[in-house]
Automatic annotation (TrEMBL):
Signal sequence segment: none
InterPro entries with a match to the protein in the record: Cro/C1-type_HTH, Lambda_DNA-bd_dom_sf, TPR-like_helical_dom_sf
GO molecular function: DNA binding
Domain HTH cro/C1-type: 8-61
Name by which UniProt lists this protein: Cro/Cl family transcriptional regulator
A Pfam short name: HTH_3
Amino acid sequence: MRIKGDIIRSVRKQKKLSQVTLAAGICTQGTVSNIENKNVCDSLEILDAICKRLNLSLESVLDDNDEKKLTSLLNHVEDLCNTFKHKEAHSLLQATSINPADFQNKELEVRWLYFMGITNLLGYNNTTDSLFYFYRADELGDPNSIYAILSVNSLGIVYEMANELAKAQVYYEKSIDMLNKMTIKMPIEATKIFFNTAKFYSLIKQYDAAYDLATGGMALNRTYQSLYMLDLLAYEAAFNDFMKSPDLSAPDFKSAKVFAAFNENHSLLSVIANDEKTLVR
């Protein structure tokens, strides 16, 4: 994709970072050089990680073209999905005239496929279309594509909703394995994968695995100094810690309640209130 490499170079120098330091844990120094001097980057995930390290928005370094427009649209769609407005997000995706398949870089198409899948699934319970989009994203994505990994994780959700738990477990486990094999810094979006998989393992009463996954998602938040889904992760950690620890008299929901109150997650607060009445030994 075509990008504004001069912006990357200018901000890097302002922050007194070498190309090697900027690249550390993300890509090679040669990739940073190509970005700055040739205005090209073959990986949206790498470009996004570099922008985050420099405190730049991804849109600010993309050329004014359809790729930039679609990136902006998908950012808005992601915000809507994070607040459970999947039908509205789906309408925006359907309304765009941009064809992601036209782009040379496939990662943007993978991201589009993931959001088409998740909005079909959670907005309309359309499992047929969502399966198509998730499988296609997995097929197109490279090993470092967080949206390809999210798509594999979402295949687990599809089969869990259909009560095909053995199939669901295959895809949940595959998504965690893919996360662990990433060669770039794990993105904050991986929080969803930790949470979804923790919930599943809790459902099948593998409480130790569920607890480890929930605390793994919390650790990722600490890395980014983020509160992303932290209320839900804290709840899963407390619930599964109680379920796996017969010596505990009650779950410790203190952190989950604080984060839920901060996020105004009244649904979770209601769940916690009910659990505090019923989960006692």
